[in-house]
């Protein structure tokens, strides 16, 4: 993705509008379920509103919109980091209107501030982070780096819990069961097919180049081939040094889903900054029975939002997933709320 392609309307606008537009463009890099990029930005003067795009929700995989909201939370965190690194201070109101649940956040520029080093580090990572489904290298993620990932989750109001060997086995059994359950549902295979076979040029969905090779791992990877069968065998020939972890929140409301997404973004960007790599695992969350298994694994303390596979990246080439054009995602309005000349 090209950096900072500014819609024409933003180029003519005041600095805060321009900075918010740049932040919304950069937020397009955030990870999302099936690369659905289910968000929209509306920017007017010094305010940017983040909205859920329900047309991009996955009705079978994600009927409640939990993973959609997690994805939007990741975009929100990306935008906050991007704005901070160009020297703007903002106040963010999350779910500010009870009567309008799709309005997920309102971000207002309130001044200028020297960018912090920590933010610059995450901004650097943003351009380099990709979901990495390749086998990881034969070395452990250094414990201090893991500690930083856990701290990154905590700062966003969530928890990251690395799993011990027995817990990894339980995660593997639950993930294999989730795969079997989902693949047995023709609606799931149809949804997977729709998001893995997007028309050329739409710049969303999962492209085959970014999918995993089929080789048994300690925890099965989601098979992204809708005509295939779920991966249910486990083996530690590859990924022997992989760390598996669960990202959770204390309660299970839309506000928690949004916070989980912000935490997911913070964890993934911190991992990249630390030289580690990750791939989210959410099929085990999508099936209620296996999500309950993960809750039990956390001893009932909290609600699992996504599992993560963490490791040190290998050196084979890593493909980047495409992103929608900023003009399709960002609307810029003038002070009276009328659309400006139109993005692009
Ligand atoms: C909430 C959420 C759930 C995800 N679940 C999975 C998953 O189960 N399996 C997987 O391989 N990738 C998963 N991903 C990764 C997305 O497929 C990935 O972010 C998207 O394709 C964009 O690619 P990128 O992360 O490389 O930018 C998930 C991402 C998010 C945000």
From TrEMBL:
InterPro entries assigned to the protein according to its UniProt record, in alphabetical order: Nitroreductase-like (IPR000415), Nitroreductase/BluB (IPR050627)
GO molecular function: oxidoreductase activity
UniProt cross-references to SUPFAM superfamilies, sorted A to Z: FMN-dependent nitroreductase-like (SSF55469)
Identification of the protein by name: NAD(P)H nitroreductase
Lineage per the UniProt record: Bacteria, Bacillati, Actinomycetota, Actinomycetes, Micromonosporales
């Amino acid at each position: 993705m090209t950096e900072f392609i500014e819609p024409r309307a933003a180029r003519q606008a005041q600095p805060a509008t321009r900075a918010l537009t740049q932040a919304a463009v950069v937020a397009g890099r955030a990870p999302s379920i099936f690369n659905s990029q289910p968000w929209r930005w509306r920017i007017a003067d010094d305010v940017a509103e983040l909205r859920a795009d329900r047309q991009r929700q996955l009705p079978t995989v994600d009927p409640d919109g939990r993973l959609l909201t997690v994805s939007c939370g990741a975009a929100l965190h990306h935008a906050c980091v991007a704005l901070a690194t160009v020297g703007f201070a903002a106040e963010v109101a999350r779910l500010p209107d009870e009567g309008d649940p799709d309005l997920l956040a309102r971000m207002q520029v309130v001044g200028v501030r020297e960018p912090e080093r920590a933010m610059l580090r995450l901004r650097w990572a943003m351009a380099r982070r990709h979901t990495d489904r390749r086998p990881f290298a034969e070395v452990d993620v250094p414990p201090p780096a893991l500690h930083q990932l856990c701290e990154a989750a905590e700062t966003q109001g969530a928890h990251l819990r690395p799993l011990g060997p027995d817990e990894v086995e339980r995660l593997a059994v639950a993930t294999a069961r989730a795969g079997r359950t989902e693949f047995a549902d023709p609606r799931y295979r149809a949804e997977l097919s729709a998001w893995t076979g997007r028309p050329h040029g739409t710049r969303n969905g999962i492209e085959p180049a970014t999918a995993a090779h089929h080789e048994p791992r300690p925890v099965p990877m989601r098979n992204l081939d809708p005509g295939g069968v779920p991966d249910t065998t486990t083996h530690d020939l590859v990924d022997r040094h992989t760390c598996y972890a669960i990202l959770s929140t204390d309660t299970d409301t839309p506000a928690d889903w949004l916070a989980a997404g912000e935490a997911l973004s913070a964890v993934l960007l911190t991992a990249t900054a630390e030289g580690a790599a990750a791939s989210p695992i959410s099929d085990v969350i999508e099936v209620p029975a296996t999500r309950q298994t993960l809750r039990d694994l956390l001893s009932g303390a909290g609600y699992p939002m996504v599992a993560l596979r963490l490791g040190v990246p290998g050196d084979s080439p890593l493909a980047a997933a495409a992103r929608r054009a900023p003009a399709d995602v960002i609307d810029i309005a003038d002070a009276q709320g009328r659309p400006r000349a139109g993005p692009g």
